[in-house]
# Entry
Amino acid sequence: MGHSERTDAELLAAHVAGDRYAFAELYTRHHRRLRRLARLSTGCPQDAEDALQEAMLAAHRSAAGFRHNAAVSSWLHRIVVNACLDRTRRKRFACTELLSTHAIVGDRTAEVDTALEVRAALRRLPVNQRAAVIAVDMHGYSVADAARTFGVPPGTIKSRCARGRARLAVLLRQTHPPGAAARRPGGPIPLAPEGAAPGRVDDCA
# Structure
């Protein structure tokens, strides 16, 4: 079997065994979809590229820990989504600190806490549900656009969103009493201050 015919799992195993070209081949195979996922998750091309780089470094270093209980592509997607969430959280913290320091806005601690709680809950969703919820509820993609981005039928996106929202509602009720309007199942996810346009490229400056 030639190198070009190796499966994802075989490439990852070869990388762990010391093949210096295997990981690059694996990345080349998946980079377009991973880059789309990163841009969808961050809403900012520059943040997406930075998060993708961080994710691939993490995958490169942690490849030996891959347990083969999921597809390699799903493992890569999960690492990319987590890197995007980490970068967005760090950036939101920095922006909040800057605004607070210069007294541009009032105290928004509760708003930031809510966003962090939602992000922590998002981390606990299966990667496919998390990506669908991020696309549709965070960045305003239509079901059709999200389906095209991830290469699945629209019905699959609807199902992933429904299951993801239901699971988020359960997770958030474990932290706070039910009934908060911002956390209703199927409602908008409060990840940006009211009035902000999520996913705008000029928000990444």
Remarks:
- The chain has two domains: 7-102, 107-192.
- Residues 7-102 form a domain with the Rna Polymerase Sigma Factor; Chain: A fold (CATH 1.10.1740.10).
- Confidence is low (pLDDT under 50) at residues 94-99, 101-109, 178-205.
- DSSP finds eight helices and no strands in the chain.
